[in-house]
Amino acid sequence: DEGTIFAGGLKAARARELRAFDRRYLRWLLRFTHGNIAAAAREAGTERRNLGPIIKRLGVEAGPYRGPEDV
User: Fold this and answer.
1) Using CA atoms, how far apart are residues 46 and 50, in angstroms rounded to an integer?
2) pTM for this entry
3) Per-residue pLDDT of the chain (71 residues; tens, 9 = 90+)
């Protein structure tokens, strides 16, 4: 419900929504690149060394997006 979504004020609500977007975007990137973090970084226009810590901080794992042929 809206009361829960906006609890804590604008700053807190914005931070939650941005974090949720970042997770969705990273999952999409990893699905698109079959769990290849370097390829995901290239697709996102950044370097792997920048994307890796973000993936870790947000608790997203690349493993589930890798197929048997990608391991």
Assistant:
1) 7
2) 0.81
3) 666 767 788 899 899 999 999 999 999 999 999 999 999 999 999 999 999 999 999 999 999 999 876 55
